[in-house]
Each structure stands twice: as C-alpha cells, then as structure tokens.
C-alpha cells in the first residue's frame, strides 16, 4: 500500500506539472496538505497497474488442449484465471513462477472465449477463438474379410474436412491405429494416408480395407496386414507434412473376419 501511495503521488505530480488546469483540482487546505486529485489521475494509476496477459495462439482447434494463457506478475503467490464463453465459466488458480503464471486452457468447443487474470487486485485479459473444424467420415464401423480375393468389393471409406472455418482445399488425411499419432508418418501405428481434394473431400476408397487385410493399398503404411480380430483406427487431417496443427475424426472400428 505504501508503494502504491508513492506511485499515485508521483503520477499526480507529473499530471499537475504537465497540465496544471486539467485533471487535478485543489481545495483550500492547510499548508503542506495533499491536493485533492480528480478521477482522471487515479485512472492513469490504475491503467499503469494492469496485468500483462498473453496467449500462445490466436485460435486453436476444438477438442484439443493446446492454448496457453500467460500472466506476468511481480512477485509470488497465485494468479486467478477466469475463462468465459457461451454457456461456460471456469476458474483456475495457478502459482506464479519466475514472474509469470501459465494457465493451460482445457479442450473446448467452437466459439470465442475470454480469459481474465487477477493478481493482488490487478487484472488483465485476452480473447481467443476455437475454430469451426471437423473431420467427418462416412462410417465409423467396417467389416472386411481377410480371405476376400477381390478387395474392390470392400466398403469404401470417404469423408470431408472443414478446417479453420472453411472447407480444406489441400493437405492430407492420415490413418493411425488406436489414434497413436506420436511420430507422425514415422509412427509404428501409421496405417497410411490419402490426399484432400479441392472441395474439402477425401476418398480412401477400398484401399483402407485392403491396407488392413492385405498390407497394401494406402501410401506410406508402417503396418503389416492384420489377422482376424477387432481393431480401432482414427483419421487425422493436417494441412502440411509439419503436423503442427491438426484435427481428428471419431474412432473407426474395423472387424477383420477370416
């Protein structure tokens, strides 16, 4: 409190020297008493005490906990973060370390959100967007016969991609067993990929089933043919080979029969 009082006096003095007739008023008082300060000067002090808050990304994908909000503080203790969006309010206290507190935002649905950070009476905030993105497949259940001699009789897998509020116009759809994407195309669970068409659709056709039962069909696979049994896969869309931003489909269950 003492520090704040000194800061207020300094700011008031600066305002009084720079603009003697605006923002500061004095009333008759005994010599040596403090002048009466108008609201504008105190607003300047409050603005100087606003927390600096930053976000890691302007926008993130739905269902992926990637966003990080950082509040910069002078001191220790905890910073309270309040997340607000349509139909949602969440509060989280994060301990400050080395002058900052980092809030790991949970996975969210499409929309615009605001995060306010509060620390020792000071506040700051930022907004970010969760994009309208979706990877849809024509079916989430398939059955393929391993003994089939003509895999062209298999059911086809196709779908569409809506990415960052618009249909995807390029990129790739990768398939991973159990959704194990670590390592990208080098993952031992990588089944293969297909490309996106200009209209945002893709068609793995019967190659999806052929890759599973015969070990060939999709490009780039690291997996051998599967024996009879029940397996789970997931499709992932990425705009480029960097795989730094992606969305995924629902899980796809595949039954391989003899």
Structural summary, described in words:
- The chain has helices spanning 2-18, 39-48, 207-214; strands at 52-55, 59-60, 68-72, 78-85, 88-95, 100-104, 111-119, 122-130, 134-137, 141-145, 157-163, 166-167, 172-177, 190-195, 201-205, 229-238, 246-248, 252-257.
- It is mainly beta.
- Strands 10, 13, 14, 16, 17 and 18 form a six-stranded mixed β-sheet that branches.
- The longest helix has 17 residues, at 2-18.
Topology at a glance:
Blueprint (H helix, E strand, L loop, with lengths): L1 H17 L20 H10 L3 E4 L3 E2 L7 E5 L5 E8 L2 E8 L4 E5 L6 E9 L2 E9 L3 E4 L3 E5 L11 E7 L2 E2 L4 E6 L12 E6 L5 E5 L1 H8 L14 E10 L7 E3 L3 E6 L1
Parallel strand pairs: 2-8, 10-18
Antiparallel strand pairs: 1-3, 3-6, 4-5, 4-7, 7-8, 9-11, 11-12, 11-15, 13-14, 13-16, 16-17, 16-18
Helix pairs in contact: 1-2
Which overall shape is indicated by the principal axes computed on the Cα atoms? elongated
CATH superfamily of the largest domain: Immunoglobulins
Note the run of SSEs as H and E: HHEEEEEEEEEEEEEEEHEEE
Largest sheet, described in full? 6 strands, mixed
Task: Tell me the number of helical segments per DSSP (H or I, 4 or more residues long).
Answer: 3
Q: What is the number of domains?
A: 2
What is the architecture of the largest domain at the second tier of CATH? Sandwich
DSSP strand content: 35-45%
SS class:
mainly beta
CATH topology descriptor of the largest domain:
Immunoglobulin-like
Straight-line N-to-C gap: 78 Å
State the helical fraction: 10-25%
Oligomer: single chain
CATH class of the largest domain: Mainly Beta
């Amino acid at each position: 409190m003492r520090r704040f009082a000194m800061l207020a006096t300094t700011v008031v003095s600066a305002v009084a020297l720079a603009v003697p007739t605006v923002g500061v008023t004095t009333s008759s008082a005994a010599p040596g008493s403090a002048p009466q300060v108008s609201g504008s000067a105190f607003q300047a002090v409050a603005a100087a005490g606003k927390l600096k808050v930053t976000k890691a990304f302007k926008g993130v994908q739905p269902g992926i906990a990637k966003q990080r909000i950082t509040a910069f503080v002078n001191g220790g203790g905890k910073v309270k973060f309040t997340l607000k969006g349509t139909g949602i309010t969440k509060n989280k206290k994060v301990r400050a370390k080395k002058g900052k507190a980092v809030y790991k935002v949970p996975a969210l649905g499409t929309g615009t959100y605001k995060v306010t950070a509060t620390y020792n009476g000071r506040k700051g905030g930022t907004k970010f967007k969760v994009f309208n993105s979706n990877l849809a497949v024509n079916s989430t259940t398939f059955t393929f016969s391993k003994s089939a001699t003509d895999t062209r009789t298999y059911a086809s897998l196709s779908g569409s991609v809506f990415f960052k509020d618009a249909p995807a116009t390029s990129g790739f759809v990768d398939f991973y067993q159990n959704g194990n994407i670590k390592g990208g195309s080098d993952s031992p669970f990588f089944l293969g990929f297909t490309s996106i068409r200009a209209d945002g659709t893709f068609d793995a056709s019967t190659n999806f089933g052929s890759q599973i039962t015969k070990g060939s069909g999709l490009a780039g696979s690291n997996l051998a043919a599967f024996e009879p049994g029940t397996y789970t896969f997931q499709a992932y869309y990425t705009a480029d080979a960097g795989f730094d931003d992606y969305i995924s489909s629902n899980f796809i269950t595949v039954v391989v029969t003899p």
